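To: structure desk
From: M.T.
Subject: fold request, one chain
Message: Could you run this one when you get a chance? Sequence is below, nothing fancy, just the single chain.
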Amino acid sequence: MDTTRNTNVKTIDKTKFRSAKQKYNYSQETVDVKWGEQENDIRKNWPSRAHYIMTALGFLIGTNNFSDFPNQCMKHGGLVYIGMYMALLVVLGMPLMLLELAVGQFTSQGPVTCWKMAPLFNGIGVGMLIISLSVSVYYNLFIAWNLELMISCFTDPLPWTTCNNDYNTPYCHNGQYMHSLSQTECIELNMTATSDGICYLNETQPGITTPQSTMYGFWDISLAENQTNLTTNLQAGVEYFNRKMFGLTDDGINFENIGPITWQTVILFICAWVVNYIANFGGLGTSGYISYFTASYPFIVGIIFAAYFATLDGAQEELAGLYTEADWKYLYDVDAWNAASVAVLVTLSISWGGFIMLASYNPFHNNIVKDMLIFTMADLFMNIVTTVIVFSLHGYLKTLDIPNMDIYLDSAVAIGHLSSANVIAFAYSLFLLCISIDTQFVTVETVFTSICDLFPSLHSKRRLFVTLSTVVFVCIGVPLCTQGGRYVYLFLEKYCAADNLILLSLLEVICIGWVYGTNNLGQDIGIMMGNQKVFGLLWPRWSKWFAFCWKFLTPGCLFFVAVSTALKSSALEYFGYEYPGWSLALGVTISLLALVGFITTTIKVLLSKKSGASLKASIKKLVQPDKFWGPSLVRHRVKVGHLKNFDIDPFALGSDQPILHGGTFDISPPRGT
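Reply: Done. Structure tokens follow.
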């Protein structure tokens, strides 16, 4: 392992360290967190706290806040579901968030190499890497579609509000439910009555500027029955998204037949990767500055949207339904609790490895309890804001007699009927672009950091590594840019990072709560916190609650959700198309890849045990912290007095320079030590 170390460092008196170690009391230490100073000259630290907070908020607020949470509110009792989510946020979200921030900051390591407190559980990081890798491959496709949406906002009128575009079918209609009238009435109104029972508008009608191809209604619904779902699937907005944006222009295109590559999507997909490359190439500084805008814009514009959309016709009635139509029976519905549990993990991006990676670049004494509260409250706030936006637009659509189809589509269609639609649509598309691009920034950075931590020599060659990796990601992702790419995207979105997060989260709390020990992690956090307070309380006052969660509440909830979710799975459906039965088996297999990564790593760790040792002895050793577990700097390791046989200076360097160890399996010291 080729390792370059900084020799211009202060020599450390280890005898003094060991004496200090025994006397250390973290709750009495006044810590001074200096952002911008580089504690770790190998991995570096955040340029400022603002960089860290904005990047983390950008990663936190993603498309699931806009789609999944409001959608589950509609399905599971409105206000009742929000209450369930808030309860699970306290029991699941906060403990898991704090756990990941603590492990990352304490070790200054990414998700793959930070689990040395119990090497038998190193596979947790591998599972996180698999999830982040899989999401990185397909997620830029959503960004490419948002770029297409943004470009379309410069067309007046908006293309998803009309039927005179080259991609429209003869059955396109203006977005309202089809009118029912007789053939005679159709002709008397100067419309065209065709032999298939459909009545079309004519350009010559007074006040009508829509082309003749626009449907008005049916004069005989039985003759038109062969046209499936005419009232929704052929609405102008649906045709724009499905036929123009997603490329579903040919019959027979579906998950089983994805069709040819759509080159316009390929170009936008590459553009999305170029943006990601620019952010990741420059490291934390570049992506942090970008996040100043991309993370703050969704909050600012989201609040403005929520306030404005709530004044639209039908919005207040729809929002009132959240409370007046709250169905308390969902409190006893297992599916509702499962949905809320998965929503907590997904909207907080738990078990992706992203927050471990972000925290690994923090100053050692950063106040992670305060960070945890900021992030979880920001997530809840944005969930409520997006729910107000979605429900308001749904209510507005009802006043226009336009059916609800899909949250993503409905919002754009509703905005298309507002005054100054182009301006609002552009702000909306930029909103979606920001919440998606920040998530991709951090997800891809998690992959890069994890691999660089596995192979430390890559830190000095990071820019070349990022460049080559981006090219690989583009090559892998281009085949998704087909006419049937929408079907593939929805499939990967459902199975790459959803139910598998439950299993990884369960393994995390088992590792901490029952193997490493809640007391040990509490002491680790205390060392980092010192005498810093949160709401006037020192860490020991907070630690009892989180210890109880890590050991009992959180694993208990996760186990229950994991079992009930496994017993109830169903195939996907998109606008009347049902995915084939075999897709469920394929999806479950993909979802379990993270678990396979954990199991494979565990077996590899066990097989690497010393010859002659029994399996029981090997397991006993592998659930104990190895010699490299702990802070990166010796001046911080000296404070660890609660672990038996803890090695303050495992490389015997006698200097306060970063302890640079290798990957999950490579625990040999650097050459020359």
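Reply (cont.): The longest helix spans residues 421-454. Let me know if you need anything else for the meeting.
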